[in-house]
Design brief:
By secondary structure, this protein is α+β, with helices and mostly antiparallel strands. Among the domains are: 1-113, Helix Hairpins, CATH 1.10.287.110; 264-356, Urease metallochaperone UreE, N-terminal domain (HSP40/DNAj peptide-binding domain), CATH 2.60.260.20. It contains 8 helices and 17 strands. The strands form 7 sheets. The protein has a 4-stranded mixed β-sheet. Strands 1-11-10 form a 3-stranded mixed β-sheet, with no helix packed on it. The chain is elongated and about 105 Å long. The structure holds zinc ion (2 copies).
Amino acid sequence: MTEDFYELLGVNKTADEAELKSAYKKAARKFHPDNAETGNEELFKKVGAAYEVLKDPQKRQIYDQYGAEGLKGAGGFSGAGAEGFGGFEDLGDIFSSFFGGGFSGGGAKAQNRPTKGQDHEVSIQIDFMDAIEDKAKKIRLNPLDLCKSCNGKGAENPSDVSTCGTCNGAGQVMSLQNTIFGQVRQTSTCPSCHGSGKFIKNPCKACNGRGYKRETKEIEVTIPAGINDGTTMRLSGQGDVGKNGGPRGDIYLVVRVRSHDKFKRDGADIYSTVKVGFAEAALGHELEVPTIYGEQKLKIKPGTQSHEVYTIKEAGMPVINRKNRKGDQYVNVEVVIPNNLSKEEKKLLEEFQKLRRDKDIKV
Ligand SMILES: [Zn+2]
Ligand SMILES: [Zn+2]
């Protein structure tokens, strides 16, 4: 794994403040130890340290010129001094927007304050045609809830709960760590109580004393008409239960819309192709064209060329969140040249050719 601060954050050396911040948020969210799938405490600390430096123009300049070593010598990296990672207060702010303040550097108080439950991302696939109107869909969620057996206490009896001796109820312990910036004071979750600050004599059997359990539930969601592939919907308060009475987290529902073999979509507009014989194209014709609402008549004018595009007004998808507005359908007319002429057809065409002579040939 790279030690380069820019590489750690996945940005160019020229990244501006906003780019840095957004790259940092993304990386920190990915590696946050609370993140069950991609959490990685070591990387999480590294990206935090990298951001600490790069967000400060002065430190960044030193880093650019002399590298991490330069910061050490010049005392430019204040975060590694006696105050520990002072920047973790900033981190806390950033994290409150992702994890509801689940990240806390402040010891006992922080452990016990109400925090919002964790958010989760869930995805759902719907059919192309499902997007024509509001569609109710059931989705299955697996949020963390208070254990029903012990009501979140984690104990068989309330009198079984006492203060954790390892951390004196703080939920966190301090340790010194050697890093590239020198020795750093580091707080980590108490290994005895896993951050609860409590010691439980007879843990609740249903939740092993955690007080929380994942519960599967199904909810119905209305997917709005006209939704585009890849849209994310926020389902407020459907995520994990909050800690210490904090609000529930949210669910971010990513909606994937399957493609269709006849219709292509661009926003609310639909694109399709119809084939017509060259005689119909030359003489004009009325066709039945498939739309997402069923067949619709389309008149093509005499002399229509191959790949001429006709518009059927308001045959497209509903425009999302705009009641009664629809996109259009663009019909690409493909003129078919026959390659299996019967004798009679051939004779007629040859006669036609004589009449026509070389009127259509231009070089
Ligand atoms: Zn329980
Ligand atoms: Zn403890």
